[in-house]
Specification:
9-stranded mixed β-sheet; 2 helices; Nucleoside Triphosphate Pyrophosphohydrolase; about 150 residues; alpha+beta; globular
């Protein structure tokens, strides 16, 4: 019997939320998703999500990508750790994440948005600037493209 999905308090958390992200390159194009939740609702980013208690990082990456995009990937090397802390107008911590990003290997599937995301697209490196990525995300993708020898 599968355990129920844990409820993770993301807004005004009791502690940092550990999350994973995946840079996925398919046919020399990068998978971007349009966020369907705060923080960053409606912005373009890479897919990922929260790590469940007792879950290995590699499993969390592969599970989140399947849930969000329908793709099967194999977790590859860790590329970056990023720690965004977002405070509200009163200075209280509204969001605090420790995000661990991986370069993943595409195995199979067609990108499709799930309930957590609004859209999923494959974008050539030359078109990435059109998507208004946060600097940290653009830098991460650039690093992964360099690792793959695509820029």
């Amino acid at each position: 019997m599968q355990e129920p999905e844990p409820i993770i308090k993301r807004e005004y958390p009791d502690g940092p939320v550990v999350g994973v992200g995946a840079v996925i390159i398919i046919d020399d194009k990068v998978l971007l998703i349009k966020r369907g939740k705060e923080p960053g609702y409606g912005s373009w980013s890479i897919p990922g999500g929260a790590v469940h208690l007792g879950e290995k990082l590699s499993h969390a990456v592969e599970r989140e990508i399947l849930e969000e995009t329908g793709l099967i990937v194999r977790c590859g090397e860790m590329v970056k750790v990023y720690e965004p802390v977002i405070r509200d107008q009163e200075g209280k911590v509204q969001f605090h994440y420790v995000l661990i990003d991986f370069l993943c290997e595409y195995v199979s599937g067609e990108p499709r948005p799930s309930s957590d995301i609004l859209d999923a697209v494959l974008v050539s490196p030359a078109e990435l600037k059109k998507y208004g990525l946060f600097k940290a995300t653009a830098d991460l993708i650039d690093k992964c493209l360099r690792i793959k020898g695509l820029v």
